[in-house]
Amino acid sequence: MSNRGIKSVLGIIFITVMLLSGCAIKNGHKKSSDVNVDTTTVKVDETTESSKNESSVEKKTPKFADDKVVNDFINNYNDISNSPLENIKKGNIKIKYFATSYGYYLELLHANDTDKINVTINQTNENSSSGVAGMKEVFHDIVKSIESSLSDDDINNFFDKLISNEIKTGSNLGTLKIDYIPDKELSNGHSRGHIKVIAQQ
Fold this sequence. Notes:
Layout: H1 3-58, H2 68-80, E1 86-90, E2 96-101, E3 104-110, E4 117-122, H3 136-146, H4 152-163, E5 171-173, E6 176-181, E7 184-186, E8 189-191, E9 194-199
Antiparallel strand pairs: 1-2, 2-3, 3-4, 4-9, 5-6, 6-9, 7-8
């Protein structure tokens, strides 16, 4: 046989083998669908397992601060507030932290030898024109996150009376003591006021 004849025969054999291989793969594919069903079942089980793991992770409390009392307050506050605490920074002692909310600067302090927190609301340049009167929303959220049994009306009425000097500084709101320093015009300039919410035993 000539070279050309051998090449033709090899070409026909090659094409036949390719066609038969294709048929074998197609037949094998039908059988592998059972394997795909098993694989799909495993994936569903993995997804279900993954969902269980995610839900257990979601139940964990996020950690914003090393101090447990401060961290619990931050989580409670963030759960109810329209302005969650941001820019959370540790202070010069291990039980003191700083944060911002509604544009106000907050000092968060775990009170000595208790499981209570003290929060001071301070003005910033951003909100100094509103003065202490602009602290109503942040005051509400702080009080509500510490003393959840108080109603919104109780908190808002207390704030309004505090700002209008109908309530004295150091008065109680539920189990909380509220210290209030109003804005003042001094001979050497303006003194910014602040409000301190003190959780008591």
